[in-house]
Amino acid sequence: MKRLFLTACAIALGLSVFSTSDNAYAQDPGVENAIKYRQSVMKAVGGNMGAMVGIMKGAGDKANLATHAGAMADLAKIASTLFPAGSDFGETTALPVIWEKPDDFSAAIKKFQDAADNLATVAQSGDMAASGKAFGGLGESCKNCHENFREKKER
Ligand code: HEC
Question: Whose CA, among 67, 79, 90, 97, lies 20 to 30 Å from 124?
Fold first, then answer.
């Protein structure tokens, strides 16, 4: 009887210790919120990208291209703030290499910012051919970072 009681205590203790350490990161609202915030900003980045593709295919008002390009340039400016230390745990596809090779990651962000700034400037001119070229450069900057710093998705 005594042994059974001790075993029960050990299990209860073991389980509670286990669950605490297991969820240490998942339960930290700071980290979870940082990841959600990052993904929301990236969704906005993706939304503006999709909208620009639509305009270049002839949908919407051509003048809106400059608006989306400007929004993209603004979002690129805050990209460096989206990856606080510790936000590589939890529901994220951001790879640890972001924090392991900060110089390489900063270079990828700089590429994004330069490409977005370039498109924002070119789009002001209304020249669709030149904008298309600048848009291609922006797309390359997304690909460059996703290939190196984001988990590959099966879908
Ligand atoms: C400097 C690196 C970097 C650049 C540049 C970058 N991304 Fe991302 N992106 C990421 C990372 C890392 C994630 C994964 C975020 C996570 O899961 O926490 C991501 C996620 C996303 C997502 C998914 C968001 C979600 O969770 O639903 C979209 C959409 C996206 N990026 C679009 C773009 C587009 C479009 C561009 C270019 C205009 C771009 N990204 C440029 C690093 C980058």
Answer: 79
